Every structure is written in C-alpha cells, then in structure tokens.
C-alpha cells in the first residue's frame, strides 16, 4: 500500500506525459488539448475548459471540466454543464 | 461485469448516498432500476473493491477464456495502438498489453474513478515491463477524448450492455477506429433461445446474487438481471453496429449461450 502510494505520488508529481497529451482531445469539441503543468490539467482552448489530472489519470468526463473564465474570476469549483458547453461550441462554430 | 473480492468486514452495509439523497439501507426496492449514467457510475464505484476475483468465482475462471477470445477477435497485434472502452479494473487492457507488446500502446478508458485506481494499482504491482505501455483515462464512452482514426483495435468488455446510449458509443468507437479496423465487444448474451434465457436467469438468481450477498452487494447484482433484460439480441446488436457506421457486423455466442461477442469492422476492410 505504501509502495502504491509512492508510485501514485510520483505519477502525480510528474503530471501528464507528453505522449499521452498527444493522443488526447477534448471530449466535447474533439480539438487538441494543451498541458498546463502549473495546474496539472489539460486545457481545451477551443471551448475554454480545463480538465484535471488526478493521480496521473486525466479526468476527461465532460462534467469534470471547469470553465476557465469562471475559475479564474471567482476561484470557484463550479462544474461544467456539458450541454451548455456543447451549445456554446456550436454557436461559436456556426 | 468485472468484480473483486475484499474482506466482508470492511464492506459498509449502508450504501453511500447518491447526490442529493440521504444514506439508504442496502436492501432498497427490488423494482427500482439504475437508469441514468450518474447512478451507474456510483454503482460501479461502489462495487470496484469486490470486482475482480468474484468473476473467477462466478464463472469458474471461464471469463478469462471469453476475454482472450474477445482480444483475438479484435485483431490486435504487435505494435498496435489499441483502446479498451469501459476498461474497469483492467482485465482486457492487460491482455491487450501482452498482445501489442512494448512497441504498442494501450489506453484503458472508464467513467469509474475507483475502478481505474484499482487498474492502476494492479499495473504497478505487476513485474511485467510490457504493462508500462498502458495508460488509464477517466472518460465517458459516449464522448471519447480521442481524435478520429486513432486505434488499430478497440475492445469493450461488459460495457456496451451498461451504457445509457449504445448507438452513440458505437458511433464514437467507429470514429476513433482506423479504417479497416475492428471493435470486439464482449457482454452477456440476450438469447432468443428460451432454454438459454432460463438457464441464465437461474444462474443469476441462485449463484450470482447469493455469492454477491455475502459481500452485501445482492442488489447490485440483481441489477445485472434487469440490465440483461434491457440488452439487445445478437441480431439487434449487429443492426445497431451497421447503423453506427460499421461496414460489417457479426455477433458470436460463447459460454454456452450465456455470453456474446460482437465483432464489427469500420469501412476499408474486405474479409
């Protein structure tokens, strides 16, 4: 258990590997993701959402995403409404 | 459905509360169905600790054979990039890892954080260096976080029967498969043979649920029987795959009709 914990800590400390970030896209927009080492998260610039990386595992369920503007402004942890993000994305794309 | 054993003494007899609800006793209404994605995620998080070894117990080790067959049907080979959707605690991902070897890559995706933590723990507790080619992703099968044409093979083990929107999942799987590549989906079989159906129901009622009850998870496994009733037959799954964009689809029954394996090909392959 202790060895497992150390392994997870090491994985979390190194964040997400470049190889992994290259094969992933935003689950909603399907656009490339940018690694943010400061916050240990994956950023979808196309829709302004960040997805956390926890214990070395990217959390790319749409509801795990946080809208970047809201997070920076209020330091809140409001979750993303996937339908709202999808509607925003579609409006931006049209 | 994959499950692992943990000490009965460490299991809580009261289920963790769902969002917006108070803690409830284990034995809730038998007629209540687990419908929405959130509830299913909570269910799989809850049974994660008792996932893996129960399969060995309940199937007398047969599930290992069915899973190896599913890998073979997927066409995965050395050096391939492959995806296991609804990977759970990683049984299929580990088999894929051995198949594609150190030059290949395996991605295991699941919406249950607890299942993925167990998968990651199993990966790091193994001495096999080839398992280093596995990456775990928490994600939803209906919104796969991969570009188009990413994978040489995709497997789904006991997942397609548990997702809310099977068509959307198959459409997404088709999207991420390279042209000419296959998906291999193993799951319980909804048989049109009355004898097979009766035998399956008998197995669940008199073998699976009592065994799960020992660990306080009888209701979770009663869900299994209700969810099988909502499955599609082999023919219906074949049609669904074609509607999702696959150019060919075939469903094979295994395990004496208890299990079934759908194999579908994205356009570009001529058998």
TrEMBL record, chain A:
InterPro entries: Trm112-like. This is Protein preY, mitochondrial. It holds the Pfam family Trm112p. Residues 83-94 have a biased composition (Basic and acidic residues). Residues 67-94 are annotated as: Disordered. It comes from the Eukaryota. Belongs to the PREY family.
From TrEMBL, chain B:
It catalyses: demethylphylloquinol + S-adenosyl-L-methionine = phylloquinol + S-adenosyl-L-homocysteine + H(+). Its EC number is 2.1.1.329. Pfam families: Ubie_methyltran. Gene3D superfamilies: Vaccinia Virus protein VP39. Coiled coil: none annotated. Its main location: plastid. Belongs to the class I-like SAM-binding methyltransferase superfamily. MenG/UbiE family. This is 2-phytyl-1,4-beta-naphthoquinone methyltransferase, chloroplastic. It comes from Coffea arabica.
């Amino acid at each position: 258990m202790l060895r497992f914990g150390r392994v997870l800590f090491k994985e979390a400390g190194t964040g997400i590997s470049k190889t992994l970030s290259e094969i992933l896209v935003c689950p909603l927009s399907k656009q490339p993701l940018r690694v943010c080492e400061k916050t240990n998260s994956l950023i979808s610039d196309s829709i302004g959402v960040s997805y956390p990386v926890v214990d070395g595992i990217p959390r790319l369920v749409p509801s795990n995403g946080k809208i970047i503007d809201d997070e920076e402004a209020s330091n809140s942890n409001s979750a993303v409404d996937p339908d709202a993000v999808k509607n925003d994305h579609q409006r931006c794309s049209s | 459905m994959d499950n692992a054993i943990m000490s009965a003494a460490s299991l809580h007899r009261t289920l963790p509360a769902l969002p917006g609800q108070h803690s409830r006793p284990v034995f809730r209404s038998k007629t209540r169905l687990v419908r929405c994605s959130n509830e299913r995620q909570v269910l799989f998080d809850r049974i994660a600790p008792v996932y893996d070894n129960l399969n060995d117990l309940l199937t007398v080790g047969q599930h290992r054979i069915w899973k190896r067959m599913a890998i073979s049907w997927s066409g995965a080979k050395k050096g391939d990039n492959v995806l296991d959707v609804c990977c759970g605690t990683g049984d299929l991902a580990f088999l894929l890892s051995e198949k594609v070897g150190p030059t290949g890559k395996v991605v295991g995706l699941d919406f249950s954080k607890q299942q993925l933590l167990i998968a990651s723990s199993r990966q790091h507790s193994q001495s096999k260096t080839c398992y280093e080619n596995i990456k775990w992703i928490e994600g939803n099968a209906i919104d796969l976080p991969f570009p188009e044409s990413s994978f040489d093979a995709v497997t789904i083990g006991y997942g397609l029967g548990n997702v809310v929107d099977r068509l959307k999942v198959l459409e997404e799987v088709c999207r991420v498969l390279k042209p000419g590549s296959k998906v291999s989906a193993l799951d319980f079989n909804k048989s049109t043979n009355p004898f097979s159906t009766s035998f399956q129901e008998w197995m669940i009622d008199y073998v699976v649920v009592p065994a799960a009850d020992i660990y306080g998870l009888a209701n979770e496994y009663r869900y299994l029987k209700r969810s099988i009733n909502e499955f599609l037959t082999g023919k219906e799954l074949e049609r669904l795959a074609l509607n999702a964009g696959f150019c060919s689809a075939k469903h094979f029954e295994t395990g004496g009709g208890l299990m079934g394996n759908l194999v579908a090909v994205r356009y570009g392959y001529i058998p």
